[in-house]
DNA sequence: GCTATTAACTTACGACCGTTCGTTAGCCAA
DNA sequence: TTGGCTAACGAACGGTCGTAAGTTAATAGC
């Protein structure tokens, strides 16, 4: 319609494309991204869309990058001021759960869904997904190690095992929210995380054993 | 090539189609199923493939049904003889983990991946996925209720909360196996499940508060 | 042996996919 | 004012998608 040509407008357009792509990919997955649909949504031509990235895979990687950045700003960045260890980690998981609920309608955190989408398809996209999740996993493990060092957790804590289980809680919450729309999911997840981080017994097993 | 016409051959062909579709869908997802590719893999025409189902969605539902049936035979059916409650449930989760490892290369249990694939796409397929997962969830909850009734678990156990956390462990295992190919995943999952079902404290928190 | 049934076939359709091409039009520096 | 740069365009490419129509041929019931 009305062509703009300055380089400044170009990055604005690129940002606009990625923003919309983020929404679409959150709902339909990274593979559900379609240049034609994206162009239609944005009121521009397919060539105008793909021109900013060159190839669809490059677009997917850009979207993934934007998602990681969004997550970083939404979750870890908000708890940098908290006390390192279980305190900070608990706050971080809480922020993550809030983040999930905010995006309930539009697919929530698609990092985790991209993980299951590309787990069997080798390539740059899968590598990027692995890198992003690994980064988060290392963040969690590092905080747990701090807690184990300063006495909040026992010094012989198996931090990898604990990180594994915390990740499971988040995945269960994601599924319950996205698939079942279960409003009790965040509360369940919070309870499980609190218990894991504080080292109390599992639900309803307070004295069994 | 060589057309067969008996009704007996027809169900054999249908079974063959679903079998291959199960493999493809396990690797690439239910949405990755393609009639053309399926036909090429089986050495038949697209019309010959879709003729058995009428529509692609019907094919997806048939594949989903076959997957549920396979899961039933592989997991719950193998532990019907075990003692009801945590004993049987622990065995069932163990079988499930074995099942995951068997299918490591070809995508494992795609029930869970179909869940994240269709969580944002209303329709018959999503409904079928929800029904299948709900059925499993009810199975778990019922076993936990038995355990709470016979004293293996405390009578005031929050069985839904416990089922939620058990589900999370399985999801974490699935991700670790499929995405990271982490060989320690089954052991981690087994440890977490055992702890949840026996009511001992979280990892490395044996005496912390 | 004849006929009705039907599994599987070939062919074709329209739609959409990702990508490439050449063109147009506004910005910026010279 | 002019010329290079480039964002965005329209159009077309070959390919694949799901589906429909019509054909062939082997079976099953009479």
Overview of the molecule:
The structure is a homodimer of 209-residue chains. The first copy, chain A, is mostly helical. Chain A has 9 helices and no strands. Chain A folds into 2 domains: 1-64, Homeodomain-like (Arc Repressor Mutant, subunit A, Orthogonal Bundle), CATH 1.10.10; 75-200, Tetracycline Repressor, domain 2. Chain A has helices spanning 7-28, 35-42, 46-50, 56-74, 86-102, 110-118, 124-150, 159-178, 185-198. The first copy, chain A, is elongated and about 60 Å long. Residues 204-209 of chain A have low confidence and may be disordered.
What is the overall number of helices of chain A?
Answer: 9
What name is given to the CATH topology of the largest domain in chain A?
A: Tetracycline Repressor, domain 2
Report the CATH architecture of the largest domain in chain A. Orthogonal Bundle
Give average pLDDT of chain A, whole number: 88
Instruction: State the helical fraction of chain A.
Output: 55-70%
- The figure for the number of domains of chain A is 2
Biggest sheet character of chain A: none
Largest interface: A-B, 63 and 63 residues
Overall geometry of chain A? elongated
Q: Separation of termini of chain A?
A: 70 Å
Oligomerization state: homodimer
What is shown here, in short?
The first copy, chain A, contains nine helices and no strands. Chain A is mainly α and 209 residues long. The relative contact order of chain A is 0.10.
Defining key terms:
209 residues, mainly alpha, elongated, Tetracycline Repressor, domain 2, DNA-binding, 2 domains, homodimer, 9 helices, Arc Repressor Mutant, subunit A
